[in-house]
Write a structure and sequence with these properties.
single chain; 285 residues; Gyrase A, domain 2; Elongation Factor Tu (Ef-tu), domain 3
């Protein structure tokens, strides 16, 4: 069974009598649908609906939650949560030391010294996250390849915080947005995109016959940008692209390039969205 140790993650605990109500009112994830033993993605948005912080959230006991996020944004995330706290009876704290291990393939057995959670972003692969203990082996390259092959985008490597809507990075497809819950920060914009079907930027899986360029390279058609390449594992990577413009290029038989490398693009296998039938239009609000 392959393992990977993530050294760039942090844990934030939110606990207290009002913890669930507090988080349910500000985060995109529907906590009513969050069970014990699982981690689901989510985001804290700007009022305009852009992702300010992304994370994985899980239950850590009665009236307690843990938010796993990038280590470099953890302090800012804590400060932002504190701004929303007001009179809520919650305690918010960042763990001083975090060990995050990933296992995939066969289901791993829980350890007495760790919390093992099913990573619900993956639909057809058993992936678990363990907090509190490290595995002896570390196959970070294999983890990167697995994440990319399944179309799972993460901030920092695949998109920049403050620049993407939840639909852009498929949080609507991976359980990171609750469309039946009450209001949360940025909810009006996200709900409008969902109900009007106006999401046009989407994560796509990018493949090439030779090594892809580094993250940040433009995806272009006839010299015109249609998106941006994110992380990659050699000849396979993730890109966030305007799917209407990609569809126009595919219909016309125009080549798509990542930098100067010819590529093919595909919708992640788990996703329910499809390439639009209409011609490329203008950016959504």
């Amino acid at each position: 069974m392959p393992f990977a140790l993530l050294k760039d993650r942090a844990l934030i605990s939110v606990s207290g009598p009002d913890a669930e109500h507090f988080l349910q009112n500000i985060l995109t994830t529907d906590l009513d649908a969050l069970g014990a033993g699982e981690a689901k993605p989510g985001a804290l948005l700007t009022p305009q609906g852009k992702i300010l912080f992304d994370f994985l959230i899980s239950r850590a006991g009665e009236n307690a939650f843990r938010l796993e996020c990038r280590a470099d944004i953890a302090d800012d995330f804590v400060r932002r949560l504190m701004l929303y706290k007001l009179r809520a009876k919650v305690e918010i704290a960042k763990s001083e030391q975090t060990l995050v291990s990933i296992a995939w393939g066969n289901e791993s057995a829980p350890s007495k010294d760790s919390t093992v959670l099913a990573d619900r972003r993956f639909r057809d692969e058993s992936v678990t996250r363990s907090y509190g203990s490290a595995q002896e082996t570390d196959d970070g390259a294999a983890w990167q390849a697995l994440r990319i092959a399944h179309g799972i985008a993460e901030s920092g490597t695949d998109y920049q915080l403050g620049d993407a809507f939840p639909h852009d990075v498929l949080l609507d497809e991976t359980g990171g947005v609750g469309f039946r819950k009450g209001c949360y920060v940025g909810q009006e914009v996200v709900s409008r995109m969902q109900h009007r079907g106006t999401a046009r930027r989407r994560v796509l899986i990018v493949r090439a016959e030779r090594a892809l360029p580094e993250a940040g390279a433009e995806l272009t058609v006839d010299g015109r940008s249609v998106g941006t390449l994110g992380s990659n594992a050699g000849t396979i990577g993730l890109g966030i692209a305007r799917i209407d413009r990609v569809k126009t290029a595919l219909d016309a038989g125009q080549p798509i390039l990542a930098g100067d490398v010819p590529v093919t693009v595909a919708i992640p296998p788990f996703a329910k969205f499809s390439f639009p039938q209409e011609a490329a239009g203008t950016e959504e609000a």
